[in-house]
Design a protein that fits this description.
alpha/beta; 4 domains; seven-stranded antiparallel β-sheet; 18 helices
Length: about 550
């Protein structure tokens, strides 16, 4: 019996799957796309298109992954427990309940948020409830057809490679239908194996966020338009803005409440202007100081700034550098800067962070892409008795965190800090755009850009592998007419000069150019695409942008 036929016979618990399988009976390409592989489980857990088959997000792939996690936990804990959260995506609540039912059947106590909740509150729940693991059902900022399943360790950080490999080894032993235990949900609740996470846990989370505020003075003079992009941010973000005394908050009505279809923002990513269109339209009427946007699981935060009546979108790199400077400046002025302070960012984030950190005597650590690596650095500082040394961490993809209370990026914290920063500069007659221009004038005009190259289906995965293999074997001698002065291969952990890279192995290639520019290429860990990160520095903004445009024109040739 083919795997397709086996699923048609056994996948009966979700009628949507049966209907989908029947609809593709005579479509071999559709069948192949759903069954040519198992949905990949790694340090990011699972992520894929919702639907039927081994290469899709559905109750069976979720159950199987959870059974593997349960088997792992039982080997490492006598009385294991896990926290579970979920976002507004299609079937997120169902997947969360199914995960809880599998854990319960295996003797693992499941602490489940009874309503959708931001990703950082999952990290918080793992830590505050002393759980052995966490599960967050989310596909972050992906389009509506996606969902995902992130796994966290007992430190509240997304799992590292060793744990991911061990959990995967357990998953690979299982048959998706025959080897998965599941307990009736209501029975598991009545027996205390599934426990709702009380509201006070969220209240305590917000109290911890409040401890990260830079100054005590209320932001009474600030006017904000906010959009949760139909996700999980509405309750926590509006509460934290009220707690810091923001004078006026207007929520975008079309995007205020949960909607997994994301009808007004097909790509619910605050990095993309189209996702903010409704917010920008409302801002044109309300005329706030700031438009604030959080992605569906509320771990990323984007902004647009009212600059003389025009709303200017600021990049993740710009906001990260602004926050680093603002936090450091304020802590120094208040005499609260810790000894030997540390900031953390990623290898693909702006080089501008280095001179800003140097100005304030901050040690800047660079880690691989993914906020779990920033979380790892917080954990290392804590283990060494220097938890208070951690000042701030950010990544170019709009993720920020200013404290060690959680180990993932937190848009609740970011929204609070950004509003405090906007208030600080407003009192001095400046906008965040003005403040950024001052930093550019002080440190140079650093420009960054991101290019995405999509590769769908089985053929696309093969093509992505070939591109990375070709680049690894034959590094380009020049890019955009500029000589490549050096390269780094993060999978081989070596540089062109024979140096060693002291980071976990990762499929990333970096090319440094003689003119100070840089190109970093890596496959996405969550989507079928290759990402190219471009950076340039010039004496003027125009010079930097011109260098970026040259790189934009040259990089597509590397993808062949």
């Amino acid at each position: 019996m083919s795997e397709y036929e086996r699923w048609l016979k056994n996948a009966l618990d979700d009628p949507d799957l049966t209907e989908e399988l029947k609809s593709i009976r005579d479509k071999p390409e559709e069948i192949n796309d759903r069954f040519y592989r198992d949905l990949e489980f790694g340090t990011g857990g699972l992520r894929g298109v919702i639907g039927a088959g081994t290469n899709r997000m559905n109750i069976y792939t979720v159950r199987k992954a959870t059974q593997g996690l349960a088997n792992y936990l039982k080997k490492h804990s006598e009385h294991p427990s896990a926290a579970i959260a979920y976002d507004s995506r299609i079937k997120s609540d169902l997947f969360a309940r199914e995960a809880a039912a599998v854990l319960a059947a295996n003797g693992v106590t499941a602490h489940l948020y009874p309503q959708l909740s931001p990703t950082p509150t999952l990290s918080w729940a793992v830590r505050t409830l002393h759980c052995d693991a966490g599960i967050c059902v989310t596909a972050s900022h992906n389009p509506a057809k996606y969902n995902g399943y992130k796994v966290y360790g007992d430190d509240g950080c997304q799992i590292a490679l060793k744990m991911a490999d061990d959990v995967l080894a357990e998953i690979e032993k299982l048959d998706v239908f025959g080897d998965v235990k599941r307990m009736d949900y209501d029975k598991a609740q009545s027996e205390g194996m599934i426990r709702p996470i009380p509201d006070e846990v969220t209240d305590r989370f917000l109290d911890e966020v409040m401890k990260q505020r830079v100054f005590q003075e209320p932001c009474g003079g600030l006017k904000v338009v906010y959009t949760p992009l139909n996700g999980t941010g509405r309750v926590c973000v509006t509460r934290i803005l009220k707690m810091i005394g923001v004078g006026e908050v207007t929520v975008v009505p079309e995007q205020e409440f949960p909607d997994g279809n994301f009808t007004t923002c097909p790509f619910p990513n605050p990095e993309i202007r189209e996702a903010l269109q409704k917010g920008l339209e409302l801002s044109g009427k309300v005329r706030p100081d700031l438009l604030l946007a959080t992605d569906p699981d509320c771990d990323r935060c984007g902004i647009a700034v009212n600059q003389n009546g025009k709303f200017v979108l600021m990049s993740g790199n710009e906001v990260g550098v602004l926050l680093l400077d603002f936090i450091a400046r304020s802590r120094k002025d208040q005499g609260t800067m810790p000894e030997r302070p540390v900031a953390v960012t990623t290898i693909v984030s702006t080089d501008m962070a280095a001179p800003v950190a140097k100005k304030y005597g901050i040690e800047l650590r660079r880690v691989l892409t993914g906020f779990k690596y920033i979380g790892d650095q917080i954990a290392l500082l804590e283990q060494d008795g220097g938890a208070d040394r951690y000042l701030f961490g950010f990544e170019e993809s709009y993720g920020y965190l200013s404290g060690g209370y959680v180990r993932d990026k937190d848009a609740v914290d970011a929204g609070m800090l950004i509003c405090q920063m906007a208030q600080y500069y407003k009192k001095r007659g400046k906008t965040l755009v003005d403040a950024m221009e001052e930093l550019y004038q002080a440190y140079g005009y650093f420009e960054n850009a991101l290019m995405n190259f999509g590769f769908e289906g089985e053929d696309g995965m093969i093509q992505m592998g070939k591109i990375m293999d070709t680049l690894r074997k034959r590094a380009p001698a020049e890019i955009a007419g500029c000589k490549v002065s050096g390269w780094s291969d993060y999978e081989a952990s070596v540089t062109s000069g024979g140096g060693k890279i002291d980071l976990p192995k990762s499929n990333v290639l970096e090319y440094r150019l003689e003119n100070g520019g840089k190109v970093i290429i890596r496959p996405s860990g969550t989507e079928p695409k290759i990402k190219a990160y471009l950076s340039a520095r010039g004496k003027t903004k125009e010079e930097s942008l011109a260098l970026i445009e040259k790189l934009r024109g040259a990089v597509p040739a590397l993808m062949k």
